[in-house]
Amino acid sequence: EAFGAQRRVEPKGPLVNSEYYTGWLDYWGEAHASTSSAQVARGLEDMLQLGASVNMYMFHGGTNFAYWSGADFKDQYKPVTTSYDYDAPLSEAGDPTEKLFAIRTVISKFQPLPIGPMPPATPKYAYGRVALRKYANLLDILDVLCPSGPIQSQFPLTFEAIKQAHGFVVYRTQLPRDVLDPATLGAPPHTVCDRGYVMLQKGTLERDGQTALHVTGSAGDTLDVLLENMGRISFGANISDFKGLLANLSLDSSPLRNWLIYPLAIDTAIQQGWPHAAPPKSNSRGRAGPAFYTGTFETPGITWDTFVKFPGWSKGQLWINGFNLGRYWPRRGPQQTLFVPGSVLHVGRPNNITVLELEGAP
């Protein structure tokens, strides 16, 4: 049908499908997307019979390491998972799938296939359980994570205004008065971009989700909000996707003022060997909320690809040997594991794991 429309305006010239979808991406909180091998093969055969050229999107699934998982906007903000497996013919780990063999069978009807066996799936290794210990609460190590110190501002500034492209920023102010009866801490719609962890009373504010919490406290109590950039909208009309607090937080409609804003350089610290090379922290106060955990594991003389599972963990970010593997969120799903390429692992010395758990470790 699409090629027919093309031929009406362009009677000659090549027929090209520049984005033939072999699958689709996943969004946090939605079902895993999958497309049947038979359907993909049938569409491919129909196009090749017309003499068309085809570019597959994706042919090889991949991974949105670090903070590179973007987002879509379809009536609301839809952050993409760390995995970009895409249900593609070659999986996130580079392995052939049933869909790849179905596509090869179709292509064999039109031209000879390469001679020789298909490369097999790469070997994977189960390295076992890794015990993690709590290193420190995030709020207790702002001197390490924000060595330049906070930015003072009467009202909150966006990530862009403080030149923070990715990751996390702490917004800190003080309660201006005693709040004995619960007061409403809230923000206008679409101004918490994208997820705020409130650490006066534990709770979250979320874009297109909960935008108000009830809080109590005394005048002068510290109100900290850790703001997470969950990924930028990568195409369409909403591509100017500012992050952070885009408007003021209010207490019972009274704007809060006098903020200290901490842009967190977490990756810089971890790439320089922190916290494994740092002296152990004296026991952090037992407050709930975002905290760092550390552990190590050995490889048996060879490094193979593997996956990390998170039984009982909630949501956060994970690094191995300073490499940011991306965001995990098994509580919301659908993704339950993070892909670990063998190339980030060490042989003959410990592999360091660092985890920033935002909502609660088991």
From TrEMBL:
Keywords, alphabetical: Glycoprotein, Glycosidase, Hydrolase, Signal
Cross-referenced Pfam families: BetaGal_ABD_1, BetaGal_gal-bd, Glyco_hydro_35
Molecular-function annotations in GO: hydrolase activity, hydrolyzing O-glycosyl compounds
Domain (Beta-galactosidase galactose-binding): residue spans on this chain: 290-348
Span of domain Glycoside hydrolase 35 catalytic: 2-109
GO biological process, one term: carbohydrate metabolic process
InterPro entries the UniProt entry points to: BetaGal1-like_ABD1, BetaGal_gal-bd, Galactose-bd-like_sf, GH, Gly_Hdrlase_35_cat, Glycoside_Hdrlase_35
Ranges of residues in domain Beta-galactosidase 1-like first all-beta: 156-264
Superkingdom: Eukaryota
Keyword Transit peptide: no
Family: Belongs to the glycosyl hydrolase 35 family.
Database matches in PANTHER family: BETA-GALACTOSIDASE RELATED
Protein name (database record): Beta-galactosidase
Organism: Leptosomus discolor (Madagascar cuckoo roller)
Classification lineage: Eukaryota, Metazoa, Chordata, Craniata, Vertebrata
